[in-house]
Amino acid sequence: MKVVILAGGFGTRITEESIYKPKPLIDIGGMPIIWHIMKYYSTFGFNDFIICAGYKQNCLKEYFANYYLNHSDITFDMVNNNMEIHKTNSEPWRVTVVDTGLNTMTGGRLKRVREYIGDETFMLTYGDGVSDVNLNELLKFHNDNGKIATITAVRPGGRFGALDLDSSNNVHSFREKYSDDGGWINGGFMVLEPNIMDFIDGDDNMLEYEPFNKLVEKNQLNAYKHKGFWQCMDSVRDKIILEKLITENAAPWIKW
After folding, report:
1. Of the candidates 19, 2, 77, 81, the residue with the CA atom closest to the CA atom of residue 236
2. 3-state secondary structure of 85
3. What per-residue confidence (pLDDT) applies to 158?
4. Nearest to 161 by CA among 151, 148, 147, 169
5. Smallest Cα–Cα separation from 215: which of 163, 178, 137?
6. Is residue 253 included in any domain, yes or no?
7. Contact between 51 and 37 (Cβ < 8 Å)
8. Which of the 8 DSSP states describes residue 27?
9. Is the pLDDT of residue 206 over 60?
10. Are 197 and 114 in contact (CB under 8 A)?
11. Of 30, 28, 35, 29, nearest in space to 14 by CA
12. I want to staple 226 with a disulfide (CB 3.0 to 4.6 A). Which of 69, 109, 133, 255 is the partner?
């Protein structure tokens, strides 16, 4: 099953680092956060990734182009112009990096990689958030409920837009999150059917608004409630939180 990662945004809330690289390449614990996300999916056997790049997309291509060499022991024979690779810690990944445009919205980015996804169920997440959600249980939940889209709902508290859910976990609306609201939000880690593309009109569609609200109207959007760990890296403060967890060997998403 393919995993699509949205990695094209400008990272405007963490410009201290995103001015030099796309946010998914900002390090936590010495490795880019997108690497952590991919390693987590890989522990569940998901190794085929499609990355929706945009801002500084060349950096993402260069990172994966050089990944094998940068994680290997190598002897360079300067006299004979030879290179010998002795040992590698490479991953069992297949990675497709697609330039989905500089200003394209999330829905538009997804639609631009349609040809690489094909006609099969796929996973989708953001390139700046980690969690310990059980991906096998998430996929089973999606298959059992038979909806076009399943999102992972989390309750971080704070500044995000909220989801209204009924007792059957159907999503009834997206709305702004109130300051005293402990509501559920979309934490990413989604499972989607290929006909989600029919609900996306073009580059200016944010997946979380027009397409998802169309699904809500047709009762085709479900939520898998995750009460465990979830943390995005939206700011330097968030990065410090994640770094601290790694330093203290208390990062719930690190299962490798």
Report:
1. 19
2. strand
3. 52
4. 151
5. 163
6. no
7. no
8. E
9. yes
10. yes
11. 28
12. 133
Tokens of 79: 């006299």
Under a CB-based contact definition with an 8 Å cutoff, are residues 3 and 123 in contact? Answer: yes
Q: How large a percentage of the chain has pLDDT more than 90?
A: 79
Q: What CATH number is associated with residue 66? A: 3.90.550.10
Instruction: Return the SS3 of 131.
Output: strand
Residue 119, strand partner residues? none
If you average pLDDT over residues 99-112, what whole number do you get?
A: 97
Say if 30 falls within a structural domain: yes
C-alpha–C-alpha distance, residues 131 and 226, integer Å: 9
Q: CA 256 to CA 253: how far, in whole Å?
A: 9
Predicted pLDDT at 65 = 93
Domain membership of residue 99 as a residue range:
2-247
| 61 contact partners, CB below 8 Å, separation of at least 6 | 53, 97
Measured from the Cβ of residue 220, the count of other Cβ atoms closer than 10 Å reads 20
Residue at 125: amino acid letter: T
Three-state DSSP at 208 gives coil
How far separated are the first and last CA of the chain, in Å rounded? 20
Which DSSP string do the residues of 133-156 spell out, in sequence order? Answer: --HHHHHHHHHHHT-SEEEEEE--
Contact (CB, 8 A) for 189 and 94: no
Closest CA to 225 of 175, 171, 180, 179: 171
101 closest CA partner among 51, 60, 53, 34: 53
Please report whether residue 81 resides in a domain.
Answer: yes
Number of domains in the chain: 1
- Do residues 126 and 223 lie in contact, with contact meaning Cβ atoms separated by under 8 Å? no
- Of 58, 66, 68, 104, give the one whose Cα is nearest residue 89: 68
pTM: 0.88
d(CA 204, CA 103): 8
Under DSSP, is residue 230 helix (H, G, I), strand (E, B) or coil?
Answer: strand
